[in-house]
Write a structure and sequence with these properties.
single chain; alpha/beta; FAD/NAD(P)-binding domain; 7-stranded mixed beta sheet; 5-stranded parallel beta sheet; 19 strands; binds NADPH dihydro-nicotinamide-adenine-dinucleotide phosphate
Length: 311
């Protein structure tokens, strides 16, 4: 890979990035795809995906991502490992710097950098991360065989994490800050029906307790009464939503109040001509694999039209 100017570079290898790569590869534009720090994106750490059309029996997230990668490679998409550490969108062609110091130049850029799990941001959470505190049941659940664990959050992720953890843990407690779960009915019902799962509502974490080496419990605060209660446990799983991976574009591209890239209505165009965004990095509302695939396709079509317009 020399320092020639590429037609189009895709940042990110979740469903949005891979779909853009399939379309641009098929259009003979030889896209260069930068893997990012988590190749395959969030679906690499999910279990079965049951709602991706075409897979009535469900498909494991990593398998789906492998198939998408294969499909992109078949159409001559080129992949490179590593993460982008710096972008300069003020110049044309755009310049990207990778963590190993390589500089890449491109006429069009597709941002498909996705989103990542959010953390509470308290000190004890940081102290015990990897030592009982996790944000990924599929990655770490295995270590909690016959243990007592808490899952924080009331959305679909929290339900999914809690259900997954019942495969290993002896007891799973869902802690939610409100009376009502945000999760879809089907997921909440599944969690409520599972005999290993109990729920604590109107509670938030006050502190994660430990012996300096590992988690030993959790202190909760009731948001109505203010009462503090301590509960012994071995693990705490955060499932409180996601934050978009868009900080590196701040100041160069318009972001919304939550840090998501703003795209124009019915398009993937950003505030910079020639830069397109797709998938979770620009989607606060839906955040589904299927919608990421859809916007990945849109970004490819938009980028192709842009490239035609500058030729
Ligand atoms: P959501 O934003 O839907 O839910 C986050 C949950 O965490 C909410 O219940 C929220 O509470 C709670 N929360 C947020 N911040 C805090 C905090 N500081 N302290 C305590 N609790 C907090 O995120 P998810 O990751 O669950 O889901 C994201 C999207 O992905 C959704 O569209 C979901 O449907 C989808 N998804 C679908 C799945 C599937 O179909 N199999 C699986 C997983 C996700 P509150 O409700 O009060 O705001």
């Amino acid at each position: 890979m020399g320092n020639e100017v590429r037609d189009v570079i895709i940042m990110g290898t979740g469903p949005a990035g891979y779909t853009a790569a399939i379309y641009l590869g098929r259009a003979n534009l030889k896209p260069l795809v930068i893997d990012g720090f988590q190749p395959g994106g969030q679906l690499m750490i999910t279990t079965d995906i049951e709602n991706f059309p075409g897979f009535p029996a469900g498909i494991p997230g990593p398998e789906l991502m492998m198939k998408m990668r294969e499909q992109a490679a078949k159409f001559n998409a080129e992949f490179t490992h590593g993460s982008v550490t710096e972008v300069d969108l003020s110049r044309s062609p755009f310049a990207l710097t990778l963590e190993d110091g390589r500089e890449l130049l491109t006429h069009a850029l597709i941002i498909a950098t996705g989103a990542n799990a959010k953390w509470l941001g308290i000190e004890s959470e940081n102290l015990y991360r990897g030592r009982g505190v996790s944000a990924c049941a599929t990655c770490d659940g295995f270590f909690f065989r016959d243990c007592k664990v808490f899952v924080i959050g009331g959305g679909d992720t929290a339900m999914e994490e809690a259900l997954y953890l019942t495969k290993f843990a002896s007891q799973v407690t869902l802690v939610h800050r409100r009376e009502e779960f945000r999760a879809s009915k089907i997921m909440s019902l599944r969690a409520r029906k599972n005999p290993k799962i109990s729920t604590m509502l109107n509670e938030v974490i006050d502190e994660i307790l430990g012996d300096g080496q590992k988690v030993t419990g959790i202190r909760l605060k009731n948001v109505i009464t203010g009462e503090l209660t301590e509960h012994a446990c071995d693990g705490v799983f955060m499932a409180i939503g996601h934050a978009p991976n868009a900080e590196m574009f701040r100041g160069q591209i318009d972001l919304d109040d939550y840090g998501y890239i703003i795209t124009k209505k019915s398009s993937t165009e950003t505030s910079v001509k020639g830069v397109f965004a797709c998938g979770d990095v620009q989607d606060f509302t839906y955040r589904q694999a299927v919608t990421a695939v859809g916007t990945g396709c849109m970004a490819a079509v938009d980028a192709e039209r842009f490239l035609e317009s500058i030729r």
